[in-house]
Design a protein that fits this description.
Elements: H1 2-27, H2 29-41, H3 63-79, H4 81-92, H5 98-134, H6 147-164, H7 167-176, H8 182-187, H9 189-203, H10 209-236
């Protein structure tokens, strides 16, 4: 019962932090939106309807409101991430061993910067991805994106890239708690890299190869860094504690000398 009460309190704190971030997002919507629309406004197609001015269309009655809500929600989610990430870790870490808790500070310190790095990469390549997609429009046609279409594209790009950069950190965490040995990762390395490229192709909302490569290559680099960390960590373990080289059907060695009880 105490465990459920703690979970409830931590969820409430995380939701309060998210709500506060959403309120701030509503208040500062204009500068946030200016920042988000900049990749599109830098394209030549953005000024076709009104030369010299960036134009996005509003076709629905409620589109403007939902755009404000989505932007505020995204800002609140990112801005409050230190709060809800801390609540998550504070709930999980009591069940970890002391040597595993040492890494929780590192995970907390890396989770937000990795998400921010992925989001920043998505932001800086959005204009190139959009330019490639819009270049397929037949000659003589006008390009007019709705504000909802563009925002959906931008949000999906930012979230997909941000979350993808967290996957190697999750891999390291599973290794620390003993769920994912490095030997398993090394055995399936080629398959994992292939899956990363497939994931990048399917996850990016645009179909251009540039966005796919821009997501897949950093993921492969982070995967290699995570595997290197796992190798160094397991190399420093005492010899009796590293069972990563055993197959799934092979029993780990037992220290028979510690069994002092006489047989019954």
């Amino acid at each position: 019962m105490e465990h459920l009460r703690e979970l409830r309190n931590r969820i409430l704190i995380a939701l309060l932090g998210l709500a506060l971030g959403i309120v701030v997002g509503f208040i500062y919507f204009d500068p946030i939106w200016k920042f988000l629309e900049e990749p599109y406004c830098g394209l030549q197609q953005a000024q076709q309807l009104r030369p010299g001015q960036c134009t996005l269309l509003v076709l629905g009655v409620f589109d403007s409101f939902f755009v404000n809500l989505k932007v505020a929600a995204l800002f609140g989610l990112v801005a409050s991430s230190p709060i809800w990430l801390y609540q998550l870790w504070a709930f999980v870490t009591p069940g970890l061993y002391r040597n595993e808790k040492r890494y929780s500070v590192m995970f907390m310190g890396l989770a937000v910067p990795l998400f921010a790095a992925g989001a920043a990469l998505a932001y800086f390549i959005m204009d190139t991805g959009l330019a490639i997609l819009l270049s397929f429009a037949p000659e003589g046609t006008l390009t007019g994106l709705t504000i909802d279409e563009y925002l959906g594209y931008a949000l999906v790009m930012i979230v997909i890239f941000g979350v993808s950069f967290e996957l190697p950190l999750l891999m390291v965490f599973l290794n620390v708690i003993g769920v994912l040995p490095r030997a398993t990762v090394a055995k399936h390395r080629r398959t994992v890299i292939f899956i990363m490229f497939v994931f990048a192709a399917l996850a990016t909302p645009s179909t251009d190869p540039f966005s796919m490569i821009a997501l897949a290559i950093p993921m492969v680099v982070l995967f290699a860094l995570a595997e290197g960390f796992m190798y160094l960590r397991e190399k420093r373990l005492p010899k009796g504690e590293d069972f990563s080289n055993l197959s799934d059907d092979e029993a780990s060695p037992l220290d028979l000398e510690t069994d002092t009880d006489p047989p019954k």
